[in-house]
Amino acid sequence: MLKLSLVTCCFVLSVVIEGLALLDLGVSPYSGDVFHETPLIIYLFHFVVDYAEITFMLADVITAVALYLAVKDYNKQVFRKQKFALEADRYPLDCLELIRSPKEMYYIPLKVAMFYLLNPFTILSCVAKSTCGLNNAVIALFILSTIKGNVLLSAIFLSLATYQSIYPLTLCAPALLYLMQRQYIPVNFRRASFWWFIVQYAFMYLGSLFVIICLSFFLLGSWDYLPSVYGFILSVPDLTPNIGLFWYFFAEMFEHFRLFFLCVFQINVFFYTIPLSIKLKEHPVFLIFMQLAVISIFKSYPTVGDIALYLAFLPVWSHLHRFLRNIFLVSCVLLACSALFPVLWHLWIYAGSANSNFYYAITLLFNVAQILLVSDYFYAFLRREHHLTYGLYLKRKDGSEATLVLK
Amino acid sequence: MGLLSDPNRRRALISLLTRLNTPICLVCYMAGVAWFMGLAFEPFTLRTYMSENAMGSTMVEERFPAGERALATGREFAAHKKKVGGMPVDWLVKTMQARGLEVFTQSFSRTLPFPDENKERYMVKGTNVYGILRAPRAPRTEALVLSAPCSPGDNNQAVGLLLGLAQYFRNQIYWAKDIIFLVNEHDLIGMQAWLEGYHHTNTTGMDWSPLQGRGGSIQAALSLELSSDVITSLDLVLEGLNGQLPNLDLANLFYAFCQKIGVLCTIQGKLQRNDWDSVSGYSHAVQTMMLMVMKQASGRPWGDHGLFLRYHIEAATIKGINSFRQYKTDATTIGRLLEGMYRKLNNLLERLHQSYFFYLMPSLSHFVSIGYYMPAFGLLTVILLLRETHIFTGRYLSIYSACIGNSPLLIKYVSSQQSSPGVLSVLTPLVISHLTGVALYTLPIRFQEMAVEHFPVSETEAVVLTAIAVYTAGLALPHNTHRFLSGEGTEQGWRVLKLVAVLYLAVLLGCTALINFSLGFILALTLVPVAAFVTPHIPKVLSAFILVILSPACTLLFSVFFFQELQEMPVSFQDGWLLYLSVISQGILDHFLYGSLVYPLIALLVYPCWLLFWNILFWK
């Protein structure tokens, strides 16, 4: 029961089963206020409902394997790029210690897979049978196909992920950047090849999205699911407490400001895409990581499964450790918050002695810690890139040691 | 954000924290203790006030007249009890029916994991009798409970008064909630069976027959214990299972009616005093508050009401006490008090929720809320965080300053030094101390039969002595183990282990203090100094001695003596030791009977955490 507080209770197996039962009775599962899964999920579970446990475990394994292969491929490319740069003498001399060795990179894919599989958050979300595991699998497959350079599969999986929960839409920016980089298409607005590629990708993406949506329509025979799934995600009518930022604010808010704040809150997910894409246009995989983190922090019904997905990428950036500044503080806070969630949930819901403010305080702290973690990694990444161009030991004009200040 | 992003300011802050770490820690500890002691000082506390509108503004008149008749019923009950040699079920059913209640019985049986020597019971069989007075004015969706335990001792007046009140209440027309009159046998075990039956849960594997009749959802409950014929004052008991407290409004209600009717009322058996500015007045308040802290920390239900709280029902026990004063309170007055309280509770529109749930009471008219007492605990936890920063920067300071300042020499030095200690050297002590904890949790019950066969002890002694033996064996075991796997322990190794252990302790204490402040605070008082000072480089014998003194088991031993001292019943060391053994057995029993969390918390989490520090001390 405790875990339900951490996994949004609208996206768990029991709800899917209820939807299935309604469907069997000939009632639209979306006519009630409980079911908000996509039609494809119903039809998936129509066949595998007896093997639900195995399905969820399989989804986690698929995610882990996909991430393993993706990171392996990505590391290979990073290493190749680094080699070319070294041969071309593009790095300053004192940066040799920033160069990554194959020895330290060898175990990273394994670490990523283990980080995902052994993460308590993943286990919790799997035990709670949250459909978030399935979404993660789709996103992981999208990442894999993107990194492998398969444009069609990438577009298809991205449209699947978008179909499941709108927010992965923002991942199309890093995917485009990556695929263009891979096909040596310059990111230049004046080039026709650039636009041609975007049109191609958009066509594949929208085409498969269209096919999936129509398929859903034909499966159920009505458009009921559109407002019930996407309206539910975008307009946040369900204020059951979860680990996100929405529920408390929207429970407290005056009703006539609701639309305004809805826009303010929802825009957070999409807003950071443009500046991040401009800043990280050379590093699309890091951009994917950033986007996943932003989605999992700012989405309307976040679950611990979303957090597990982006945390799995942390070993990939293990070479940034020397530039991280708040990692200790942040990891302490994240750890303490994870322990306090169930305690305060117990006090609020079961013992009845604490109230929602206690729980929300921890939620807020947890999210602030996540934001600090992500911005810390972002800063560290930029800083390493800066050092790789300008040298590790910066001098001021007068020859004294310079310090970098982020302002 | 300037502090987090500006490297120069960060460096200044970190160096300040590193340089002044020990003095700051000492000051924090002192301040924490001082803050806590200050809580009992009356100007720092708040006066209690009724928050619940439905109970505050309405007037009720108490007219209960039949105290003498209630006492006669009590005597009749006593006679029947003696005749049957237990609970006179038939008589109770008949009497309650005669008073116009719907009467039902529930039988239950329970075999204790080992014999309870304090109450001399092992195989418990009993019957609860309860009568429901249906609400004439409302749809019967809510209920109130009045209970009196039928104990082998003297609680006959309470049952008599309960029956008297039932008869009187039956003739009133203003009840909007069902009132359930419950006579439970075998105190808490019977109560547990009844509550589980009422709510269709079974958490402890007890056998009970399902309830035949039920009222609405229970809003509040009072348990009545009148242990002697002559009552001079009434004592309010609030501490429930796992240190949970009922809403403060229930205490306010009791206090308000005691004031109105003019009954002497106490909390923790301590009268209210007005001379807060004198030393003796202050120490009286401290004593009262400390008693509450001790009782809450024990995590056991201190009255029959204790189990109600688990079901989200506000409940308290009212105890009649004979303290040999001149002033006597007769049964009619107590009946009027209860009538008044029930009529106010009857007016409730929703569950009691307006007032505080987290509080300490230095007297019945004053309380300390969570916002006031949490800083005391916070100051103690800050020490852990400071030490954490200290160790962390001690390990990484060079990297830190190198990164921040980009000084070339340092970076080169650090890069050459950077060899992370194996995960194994941290994981091994962690796993082994937790396994010891699991042994401490499971072995005493598991091995009682074997111990009884081989040693001349009773089952209860066997359980307690096994627990102590496992505990002591744990001290010898883990501090040698990490060497088998990882060879020499390194300097880095213990620092990482300490980092982990201190963080672990901080999270553990934080969670404990939220659920049960008193327990968290007492553990913090003893464990925080341990966590702060322990390193492998201090004199072994002396620090090992201090560590043992501050270990959870010794804390419990001191608490037993301290509690006796607070109750003004000091004991000799011999008696204290026996009391200590019985406290351990009670703690284990409470866990297995009612699901109290203190024993598993200590065995599975606190003790292993302490073992980690023990491990660090003997790091080689």
TrEMBL record, chain A:
It is found in: Endoplasmic reticulum membrane. The chain crosses the membrane at residues 43-71, 115-144, 201-223, 229-250, 257-274, 286-314, 326-351, 357-379. It is a multi-pass membrane protein. Keywords: Endoplasmic reticulum, GPI-anchor biosynthesis, Membrane, Transmembrane, Transmembrane helix. The keyword Nucleus does not apply. One of its GO terms (biological process) is GPI anchor biosynthetic process. Pathway: Glycolipid biosynthesis; glycosylphosphatidylinositol-anchor biosynthesis. One of its GO terms (cellular component) is GPI-anchor transamidase complex. Belongs to the PIGU family. This is Phosphatidylinositol glycan anchor biosynthesis, class U. It comes from Lates calcarifer.
TrEMBL record, chain B:
The keyword Endoplasmic reticulum applies. It is a multi-pass membrane protein. Keywords: Disulfide bond, Endoplasmic reticulum, Glycoprotein, GPI-anchor biosynthesis, Membrane, Transmembrane, Transmembrane helix. InterPro entries: Gaa1 (IPR007246). Pathway: Glycolipid biosynthesis; glycosylphosphatidylinositol-anchor biosynthesis. It is found in: Endoplasmic reticulum membrane. GO terms for cellular component: GPI-anchor transamidase complex. Its main location: endoplasmic reticulum. The chain crosses the membrane at residues 20-41, 356-385, 421-441, 462-481, 501-534, 541-563, 597-619. Heteropentamer. Part of the GPI-anchor transamidase complex, consisting of PIGK, PIGT, PIGS, PIGU and GAA1. Interacts with PIGK. Component of the glycosylphosphatidylinositol-anchor (GPI-anchor) transamidase (GPI-T) complex that catalyzes the formation of the linkage between a proprotein and a GPI-anchor and participates in GPI anchored protein biosynthesis. Binds GPI-anchor. This is GPI-anchor transamidase component GPAA1.
